[in-house]
Amino acid sequence: MKILVPATLAPDLQARPDDVVVPYDGDAPIADEHTDADVLVVWAAPPPFLQDAAQRLGALRLVQTLAAGPDAVLAAGFAPSVTVANGRGLHDGPVAEHTLALLLAAVRRLDRLGAAQREHRWDSALGHEQAGPDAPHYTLDGARVTVWGFGSIAARLAPVLALLGAEVTGVARSAGARDGVRVVTETDLPALLPATDVLISLLPATPRTRHALDAARLALLPAHAVLVNVGRGSTVDEAALVDALRAGRLGAAALDVTDTEPLRDGSPLWDAPRTIITPHVAGGRPQGASALVEAQVEALHAGTPLRNVVER
């Protein structure tokens, strides 16, 4: 079996003696002599590379992306006979950490404090301003946090939020209790959002989730609410988000993802009030990638079910 892997991953991969592991760069198309590969492992591969691979790698059985979201691979046009698997579980810890960092930065207004530092101004009034149901929250203690897209990342994050005193509710396709957290469905959002202090979006990019957080749903949030998006940028109507921030109908936003990446120079998000932006760095390097790839290759050899298969 021939396995194409990013050059940065190849040294860590333990393959069978009869398997051929071929490192590739990703900045150039796959060489002609390797278009007979059975498995393509991708990580942060640009769209032109993926589209070329979809057209030329006719023997592929599996495309294993190391990203949690498979949207880039799905958009490349691989044949229906090719199984696509995602990197679910490889980014849970780093994304949970980054989500917490963004959330605390927004709630504790580190953007405002950072501006004060650059201006050599001692902004000690922050945290001592008026309290009340419509006032900004300066703590997670007692905050009502809604996590939209309750999967493995949310399961890692929720206990930490609970330790800080937050009341966590999840939103997913099916209701129930997961990892000690009450999980509801999207049909409950009209009742849930008005009682939400912090909305964390971990939604993937699919046709169904495009602009899932639109003007109507943003309007349901309290004016002091904080939005943290570490899922995909396409899930938020950015024009509606900027409008809500400018009008004071939303307390703050902390975004690791945007609809267009890199964020274009003229985007109004750059200068939206009370907004923190990081450049899609929450996931970092996948954790345990080699073990996942090795398990997938063994499953192909044995004819047993693969992990993390994406519905197409």
The unreliable regions are none
What class would the helix/strand composition place it in?
Answer: alpha/beta
Could you state the CATH homologous superfamily of the largest domain? NAD(P)-binding Rossmann-like Domain
Count of domains:
2
Q: What string gives the helices and strands in order?
A: EEEHEHEHHEHEEEHEHEHEEH
CATH class of the largest domain: Alpha Beta
Q: Rg to the nearest angstrom?
A: 22 Å
Question: Mean pLDDT across all residues, rounded?
Answer: 94
How many strands appear in the DSSP assignment? 13
Helix content class = 25-40%
What do we call the CATH topology of the largest domain? Rossmann fold
Strand order of the largest sheet: 8-9-7-6-10-11-12-13
Report the span from N to C terminus. Answer: 24 Å
Pfam families: 2-Hacid_dh_C
InterPro entries: D-isomer_DH_NAD-bd, NAD(P)-bd_dom_sf
Protein name: Phosphoglycerate dehydrogenase-like enzyme
GO molecular function: NAD binding; oxidoreductase activity
